[in-house]
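Lab notebook: predicted structure, single chain.

Context: the supervisor wants predicted structures on file for every construct in the current expression panel, including those that have not yet been purified. This is the next one on the list. No modifications to the sequence; it matches the entry in the shared construct table.
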Amino acid sequence: MVVGEKQVALVTGASSGIGRATARAFAKAGYTTVLADVHEQEGSDAAAECTREGATCRFIQCDVSNETSVKSLMSEIVSSFGRLDAAFNNAGIEGAQAATAECATDNFDRVVGVNLRGVFFCMREELRQMVKQDGGGAIVNCSSVAGLVGFAGIPAYVASKHGVVGLTRNAALEYAQQKIRVNAVCPGAIETPMLERLMSGGVPRESVVATEPVGRLGTPEEIAAAVLWLCNPAASFVTGQALAVDGGWTAR
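Prediction complete. Output recorded below exactly as produced.
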């Protein structure tokens, strides 16, 4: 039996990068997969790509920083499919680079609004649905290695991703008795549009690769594999963890 058969998964920030790869992995595993993103055309294209894996896939436009939009997303999922078994709260932005003393208030608010408030809004609705289900569920939040250590020049991003780890651990304790597991993945340097923007801003690719003990960048598919494992019954004793998928970067 396919692990995801008759189960429903949600991926936010699903139009590109890690989110798109994870949605495709859920679909390939047999999950009915809901792709959510603020970008309608790219999200629809990603859903069509996932459908080719043979699973039921649907795109729903959503701005995770908007509470009403998130509530509407969950309402549509439940009305269409009746349940939610797995969720990957991945939507995020990097914001502008600047030292803490130079970080603009609107930049800080925007990054925290998407990366932290967005995860909170999504997780709150997911938990409310999952507590109604006999089988519980599994939630994975996308943090970052920047949620485990500091990175000079991106204070809003670092603060938001540390907050995601805190939310993850807190919810894991609160809902463990209700068969809901909550974990986070903390990607390192992954080949994504976000990393491309960073490198186009003056950070040489060679210098990024040089920081990786394994000598290469990671792929979105490698993060997707970690997310699927955390949502799998094989990880049934794993909750409240912030899993670094970073090529050994945080081991130093």
